[in-house]
Amino acid sequence: MRILIVEDEMDLSMILSEMLEMEGYYVDAVYNGISGLDYALSGIYDIIILDIMLPGMDGLQVLSEMRRNNMNTPVLMLPAKSEIEDKVTGFDKGADDYLTKPFNTKELLARIRALSRRKEKIFFDDNLKFADIVLDKETHEICKNEQKVKLTKKEFNIIELLILNKGKTVSKECITVKIWGYDTDIEYNSIEVYISFLRKKLNAINSQIHISTVRGIGYTIKERKNG
Ligand code: CA
Fold first, then answer.
1. What CATH number corresponds to the domain at position 94?
2. What is the residue range of 80's domain?
3. 29: CA distance to ligand 1 center in Å?
4. Same domain membership, residue 89 and residue 104
5. 52 CA to centre of ligand 1 in angstroms
6. CA-CA distance, 97 to 99, in Å (whole number)?
């Protein structure tokens, strides 16, 4: 789980980061709304903790820009007591939860756990369907009707990431960070190898799905049009 903290109070941000890291989360922190939006749009975060009063761009603007760009990462907002009105606005703009400052850190952890469970539920409870295939998360197979092909865990994670971002270009950087983490030695060439295996496996079951290369950037998953 990777969490982004967008909070301009340095002390609070540091306390939150340390606490979340101790719980085993990977944490990145930024201190203004513009970087917050930038980082959020990278798509590599599982949860975003978002303050409201921020320099550059306020938290509510960050949130509405995220949602306008179809970025559905769960967001926990941190309004101050005096910003109680903003909580309502936050929900209108697509916040998933909020916690009024000052808050109890145990309460924050509980909320984060709830959001991460919810995210897993949305994305991983059911087998993922796209175009003519189903990804079976138990067996790590891609199935098209009766035809099946087994994927390695990494291949499975990559195609899952592409499908969750269907229609968008997923950068090699995003694939690397999401699947191998920041501290990896994996090279972009190896990702190309995984992609070429995936293409072969999709062909093997005659799927209409095509993974196209966006030169210098990454990959997009699409359904090939008939004819
Ligand atoms: Ca603030």
1. 3.40.50.2300
2. 2-123
3. 13
4. yes
5. 6
6. 7
